[in-house]
Amino acid sequence: MAPAPSKTVVDEEQLVWVYCDNSQESDDVLSCCKASHRPKRTAILEPLDKQSRFQHWRTLLQSVLPSPPPPYSLEEKDAFWSDACTLLAASTISNGLGDTGRWPALLVTDKAKFCQASAGSMLRSALAEVGQIRESDLLNVVLAADFGLLCGVLVAGPLLERCTALCLSTSPGSAEVNLPEDKSSSSSPGAAPRDVGLQFGVFVQCLPVASIGDEVSSEPPLFGARCIAIFGDGRAAY
What we know:
single chain; alpha/beta
């Protein structure tokens, strides 16, 4: 468990409340915080449901919002009330620390429904009324899967095997595409394109660098465009 936040937050420090069910997601958020230097990000894993006012807020919220907003279902009302009061508790503690500089505190979670509902004006207005704070004092909620992109942390992974792009597959009635043989690939000539599973992130392609005196190959590379980012909806940036 990380220590409670200090009473003074410097200008280049950002508080990050970690509220994840999946331990791997929590570890990933902690890794991103440790890799951040400007601003320095301090991760807080303090359980907020132990706060003295948590149950009081929950009772009030149940009277204000007896039914959870979408995308929560009616059967998930207990989970919704806990999630909403967690946001209120983190916001209240962060505001009690005074000026947080130009880096406002964040609440990072792996709960996609909570992240979506927290942006709704109805919930934020109800939480501000229950907590007797300004609506603008409520923290922004960030999905854990997007936190690394928000921080700009580039995580180096293992090299991916080079393969023929799927977009170069021939379709009925189209001209056949002839590609130079990739001697480094174990696939046989004419083999069907393979699916390569890529996680979300930015992929940097490193080409071999020729030193002075080395022979430079005149063969064209095996790609026509470089995909540098894959978005959550399946689209890609080239």
